[in-house]
Structure formats: C-alpha cells, structure tokens
Amino acid sequence: MEYDRLIAQHSSDGAEQDRAQRPPMSPIEDRISVLSSEEEKQRRPLPGVPPEDSTTPFKEHESLTSGVHEPNTPTTVQATAHQEEEKARTPTAKLRRSGYILLFVLLYSVLAVLAWTILCILTKRPLTTKHYGVDFDTTDGTVGTGGYSWRGPWATHSLYTKNEVWLQAAQVMRSIAAVLTIPLTSAVCSKAAVAFLQQRTNSNISLRQVMVLADRGWTDPIIYFKMLVGGFKRYGTMFLLGATILNIFGGVLAPLQAYFVTIDTIKTPRWPSLLAYVADIADQFDPEYMERPSGDNLITVLARSAMASADVISPQSRLWTGESINCTQTLKKADFSVIPLSCIYGAGNTFTNFTELPDPFLAQLPSGYSTGLIRQYIPRINSTAHREIVTEASFPTDCGRLPGAFYVRYGSINPGSSALTGWGNWSLEACMPANLSTSPWRATRKRQDFTEELYLNISLGDPYLTYENTIATDATEQGGLFKITLRTTAGFFELPNYRNGQRPGKLLDDSPVGLCRGNCAHQANIPVDNPNASAERSNVRRANEDISVISSSSLVLEQLPNRGPLSTIALALFGTGSFIAERIANPDGFVYPNRTQEELRANPNSYGACVGQVPFMSLLRTDATYQTSNYLEPCLKNDVSNHDDIQHQIVDFVQALYYNYYDGYEINDNSRITNAFTAAAFLANEAWLLSTSGSHTWKVTYDMGADTTVPVLSTTGLFTVSILLGLFLVALLTLAAYSAWAPRWTDQLDSFAMLRLGASLAEDIQLKIAHTAGDVSALDKLPGWIGDKTDGEGPVGELGMGAQRRLAATRDYAACGFESK
Questions:
Q1: What is the pTM of this model?
Q2: What is the domain range of residue 17?
Q3: Which of 400, 429, 591, 759 has the least CB density, counted as fewest CB within 10 Å?
Q4: Residue 260 and residue 286 in one domain
Q5: What sign does the CA torsion over 583, 588, 590, 592 have?
C-alpha cells in the first residue's frame, strides 16, 4: 500500500511539473489531458510487472501462426480483464443509419409528381375518355361514335363529370404537397447536417456555424440578410448555402404552379342534334326541280313580294357580317344614318346602310347560329351593287335583238296631262345585254364569282321633283343613262362554334367536304363538284325565240331556272306582273277615285287609306324618318290627289330609280339607290336559295354541350414547372439518400443534439446572461465538427468536438445511459 501511495505521489508531482513547463491549454485540451492522465494511471502496470508493449503482436495470434503454444502471462490476462471490465461498465452504441426520412421523401415525390402529371394530362385531354371535344373519326365500344355514348346524354356527360373528380383530386394532392414542401425539405436538411458535420474533420467549421444549422438558418430571412451583407464566413457554410437554395427552390414551386395553372369552364359533348333540309347550292340543280313547269318564275314572285314588304329598319335574320360591328364608338347624332341600326336598337342587322356593313352576306340559318362543339359549313352568298352614269355610246344598241338578252321598254306620250298632276311624257328602257339563257350559277361547292349588268334609260318630261312642285329645268333632273353592276360571290363558310370563337369563318375557296376531320359531322348527301353541270342543266328548258323590243314580254327569261340575282330583280321590277307592267296592261284597275275633288277640298287633312305597297320603294329609305319624297311611299292610298292618274303612279316609281330625297342625284356606292339595289339582291338570293326547301339535302349537326371544369396550362408553364419540379425532387432525393446512408451519432441536428454538445462545453459556455449569440465570441473559436477524441484507441470511442479522427460505423462509442422500457 505504501508503495502504491508513493507511486501515485510521484506521478502526480511529475504531472504537475510537466504542466508547469507546458504553455497554457484551452479548456477542452485541459479536459482531454486530465482524462488521458487518469486513463494512463489506470493502465499503469503493477510493481514488478513489465509494461505491455503496444507494438508487440497479439501473443495468442502469434502462437497460432508459429505453431508453438505459450501460456498467457499474468500481465496479459490482467490487462484484458481490465478492458473488458471498463467496456462493461460504460454504455456503448454504434453509429446508426436513419432511413425513414427517405421514405417520406419518396412518398412526397410520388404525391407531387402524380398531382402535376394529372394536371398536365387534363390540360390536353380527359382521363376518362379520349378527348374533350367530338371526334367522328373514332369509334369505340364505351364512348361510341364521335365521342358520344349512344346510351344518352347523361352517359356521355358522366365521363366528363368523373374527369372533374380527377381534377379535384389533383388539386387536393397539389395543395398537400405545397403544404409539406418546406417542412419536409427542412427536415431533410436537418438530418443531412448531422452527416455533414461528422464527415468534415480537420475543417474550419465553428460552433456558431453549427448553431446556425441547428436553428435551421436556411429558413431564416435574418440569416439570409447577414450572409448577404458579408457575414457568410461567420455564419455560413456550403451546406447552409445548398440547403437555403433547396428550400427557396421548393418554396417557389407552389406559387409558380398557381401562376401558370388556371381553371376554366369549357363545353364538352352532351348529345348531337340534327338540323335537316338545309339548302345546298347543288340542290338548285336537281333535275326534278328544274323540270317543274310551275316553279321557274316563283323566285321572281317571291322576290317581288319581299321587295314590297321589306324595309330598312326591320332586322334581317339571315343577314350575316363577316366581322363584328363595333357599337362602342362615339357617334354624333348626324352619324346615326351611317351606322347599323343593330347598334341603336340591338335587334340584328338591317338594310339601313347595307353597303357599310363589314362583309355582309346571306346564309339560310339565322345570323350568329352556332353549332357548339361540332364544326359545320353552309352556303353563303353576297352581292354588291354599283351604280354609274354612262354615255349614250356605252348604252347597248338594239338590245332586244341580242341573243338571250332581257329587254323591256315602257313609255307614255301624254300632252294633255291633268292640271292637278302635271305629268307629261316619260319613258323607261331596261336592258341586260348578256346571254341569260345560260345560268351564271355553277353546281359546285367551291367558290364562284360572276357579274351581271343592267342598263336603264330613264326620261321624264316635266316631273314635279319636290314637295314644293318646282318645275325641273336641269337635264339631269329629267332622267339619264345608268348602269347597275352586281357582283355576286358564293361558296361555303364555317358556322360559328366554340372552336372558332363563335365567329363565322371566311369564305372558302374549296369544297368543305373532307376539309375537317374528327370534329366535323357528315353533311352532304349529294356528291357534286362538276363545274359544267349548271351549263348542261340550264339548257333543259332553253327557248330560242327573241324578246320583243317594243313589249314588256319577258316570258322567255321567266322560264329559265337558276337566274342570277340581278336578272331576278329586273324581272321583278320590270317584267310580267311588275308594278309598271300591270298598270299599263290594266290602267282602270289601279285608279282609286273614291273621292271627288269637292270631297277632298272639304276635308283636306284626309290622306286616304293604304291599299297596297310598291316593290323597292321602302328599300330607298334611310331609316324610319326619311322617306323617298313621292306618293308611293310608304304605301299606295285611295286618295284622288295622289293616285287618280296611272301615269302619276308610274312616274313616281320611275323617278325613284335615279332620284332620292335624302341624297338627291348623287352617284356613289353609298347612295340610297345603290343601297336599295344591294338589299334587293339579298332578297333575290334569299328567294333563290330557299326555293327548293322540299328538296334540300344538306344537314347541320350541332351540340351546345355542357359545362366542364378543366385546367389551363401554357406550353411555357408546362416546361418551366416540370423542369423546376424535376430538379427540386432530384436534389431532395439525393440529399435524403445521403442522410439515410451515412451512419450518425444523433438522428438530426435538433435541440437534443445541441443539449449534448453544450454539456461537453460546460466550462466555455455557461448558463449566464447573453442577449444574443453574437455577444459570445467563443462561438467563433470553438470547433463545430464531431470526431473520435480517442483517436481510435481503446475498445470504446468517445465523441469529441474538434476531434481529428472521423467517426467509424463499426466502432463502439460511449453512449448515454438507456432506460429499459
């Protein structure tokens, strides 16, 4: 015992002398020195026992290799027993891997990718069927033909209702992923920080930098600011920089998705409806129709009736415009006469200023008719009139003898005219010099253009031109030579639908048959596109006799089918059954002497009753206010002062063909007379197009659909978010895999880990007042990495801050005491 005491005293004195000679140590080095001294004392051999040579190979292992067995010495047995006793007395544990965070990241990745994939698919097509629209090129057993289920509208639309459920599910998954992004990313970074710190031996990581990681500085804007203003060396690490970028990356994904992905309501198929008996240009060339003896001149009669009853303020349901009309412009009161009345009354297009409308045309279906989801085409016709004054040399000579020409001449020599009316000599000559025996129309669905010309020679002797009964002396006021040119264009156009923005399509140059594929329903029953068909068929009823140059007979032209619109107008205004022809043929039948002059003088305010309307007169108005300044408008009356003379009625009619109260004798394409001829051409085309209503073979299919909610995503947004999401998930999975694979001394860098680190630094960091961590300079001097302070010696390693030896996965380390559960 005395020997042991002397040995201990000697060792203590030697240690004190050695410490006195060495320079001062840091608290950590001092603690390590004390522990080393205690361990050395425990390992010191007993007196008389030689010290163990650590470099000497293990004796048992040497004896096994030499083949000679040597008994264990007492020293070896005692040292081994001491180590086993020390190991049994100290709780130990190996470094462990933690992989559950990788599982969470995998589940999150599946959720985020699945939600984004569903949204991307739904922007292009539904998940429950092949397309949002119709596709008549496909047929399958579940959807049917064209995207319709033949079980009924409910079955078709239920497919898209189920698709909305997928959309809601994708939105919910996207919301969940957005909520989890920052917390999960931060948790992954916190776990990876442990592996980072224990793998960074011999580095310059300080305790302050470790505290920033423990505080999850990658989510702290104040840390961002400190690093930006020059504090990166004090607070930051490369791991912190990477974690910050990763968290910002994840944080912007949800706002980017919300920015690029919007929700819209579209129309999806419900049930197709068929509109049959729509006119086709080919229907007009049906031989059965063309050979009917009673139907040839019906178009003229219909056009004449329409020109008598139509006016410029009534909406025309079949009058379309190729472009939308801007009704929001600021207009003066004086401009009301040149804007469409649809802007004033909101009732549709009218004839008020037909020539001012943008691309006006006729189509059988009402203006703006929409086919919804299905693309369909129907014929369209537009005719535009142009009026000009011509010279006598330009006027056709001997028109009545030209082959197939239309020619009439009316006139009256009345030197003994009534004192009340004052009308004298007048004449009207109308000529269409072209050979009208061949129809200008062609049996084709392609675009076709043709031009017609009508010449008028009007002469008035001494007409009253104003309400003041001023006698005209100017030669212009007494008539002239005029030429009416009508240019007609016909073809097919696409009806408004959801695909073209509910706007009518442009005039097609080619046939619409086969123009569009799956989203077009079949329309044609007659295969046609023979440009010579009309010329062949128009000769079926062709006559060879000439038209008399002195009579109003137009029987030959009246028997020809498929006349042009200007030919129909000429027959309606000047042919058999016209206003002039009927009065010249039966003058007594159109005089209304119901009252005498004495009765008129006794009641001068009575203007008589309306007994009929004159074709073309109401089309000369500007609107409901301005009239044509003659007694035929708005209607014929049984008033002796107005219509006691047939010549008076006819001259009023003839005068209206070249003079208008609103614009006088002006000759331009916007004058009331030119506008009236354009409107009359519309009515003539309408009568021609609808005349074969019983034989119409074209059909239109429509489906207005039902509302369905769909996501909308641009191509730019799709690629941007997809790339960013992919990069983020790859980085997150890589970091999670790194964290899960690295054996660690603690699960994550959290408060429990910092508590243990603080316990090892009790002499340096004490429980004293420090308002901020920046006030403690020792945090910048103390090391922050974790290593094995035993330097690999002994059976049990110990964790140490600043230790130079990296932790090993197979080594036992001193651990906290564990309570048995």
A1: 0.70
A2: 2-91
A3: 759
A4: no
A5: positive
